[in-house]
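Input record, target 12 of the design panel.
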């Protein structure tokens, strides 16, 4: 029994064989998949998939790399979608300072674009955190090259909402910062990569009560499928690597990560 806590099931990568990939996941022991929203349209599609498949749940949110295109009417869509019983969190939301505008421009020309984008990212981050608080949901965090800013904002919401840092790839020291705030981590196929020693050490050292597993499919396929399309059934490969690193059985990892996910997302269906 495994839960893929972060999958982009609505992406076009799965349009030709979505039913088959869902079947393969179930055959591999993945008993629930959370389809993650990244735009208003993606969020609506995630909810639709969750409605169509009993073992799929959804989140709704505007990804930080999408904020320049986001409209206030998109937030109104999220406000409607978040009331659906299959929605288990708000996300994926947060900061991404890696994919900033103006890469082809001079430093001087890019500076105002970057500044404005960061302002919009924080505006949408806070707006969606408030939405989560209003509906008593937890949040799924995207953080890239924005560690201190993410912590700064989330500290203001500490005690009102919990967060899972999806696709965590940091050190044990960073992990402890997250955990001490009452938040969780989620690991992807990155932990199977040869050059991922830092996050592998984190997997070894943190408590079983503080992490979940995910695929982030169609991205980040674990070894031996690295470089290919990732699928929800790969959750088993992530769990197997976590079990190896912690000197446990995959069944023990499955039990602990499922328990954490069930507590965090509070599935009702």
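The sequence produced for target 12 reads:
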């Amino acid at each position: 029994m495994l839960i893929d806590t972060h999958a982009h099931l609505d992406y076009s990568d799965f349009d030709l064989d979505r039913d088959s990939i869902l079947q393969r996941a179930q055959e591999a022991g993945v008993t629930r998949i959370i389809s993650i929203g990244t735009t208003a349209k993606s969020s609506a599609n995630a909810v639709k998939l969750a409605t169509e498949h009993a073992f799929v749940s959804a989140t709704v949110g505007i990804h930080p790399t999408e904020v320049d295109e986001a409209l206030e009417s998109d937030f109104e869509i999220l406000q409607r979608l978040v009331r659906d019983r299959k929605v288990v969190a708000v996300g994926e939301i947060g900061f991404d300072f890696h994919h900033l505008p103006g890469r082809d421009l001079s430093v001087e020309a890019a500076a105002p674009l970057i500044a404005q984008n960061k302002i919009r990212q924080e505006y949408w981050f806070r707006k969606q955190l408030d939405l989560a608080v209003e509906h008593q949901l937890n949040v799924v965090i995207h953080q890239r090259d924005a560690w201190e800013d993410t912590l700064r904002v989330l500290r203001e919401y500490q005690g009102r909402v919990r967060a899972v840092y999806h696709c965590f790839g940091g050190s044990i020291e960073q992990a402890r910062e997250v955990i001490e705030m009452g938040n969780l981590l989620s690991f992807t196929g990155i932990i199977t990569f040869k050059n991922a020693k830092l996050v592998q050490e984190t997997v070894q050292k943190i408590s079983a009560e503080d992490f979940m597993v995910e695929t982030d499919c169609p991205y980040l396929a674990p070894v031996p499928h690295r470089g290919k399309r990732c699928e929800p059934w790969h959750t088993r490969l992530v769990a197997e690597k976590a079990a190896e690193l912690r000197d446990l059985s995959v069944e023990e990892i499955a039990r602990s990560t499922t328990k954490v996910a069930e507590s965090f997302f509070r599935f009702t269906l």
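The mean pLDDT is 97.
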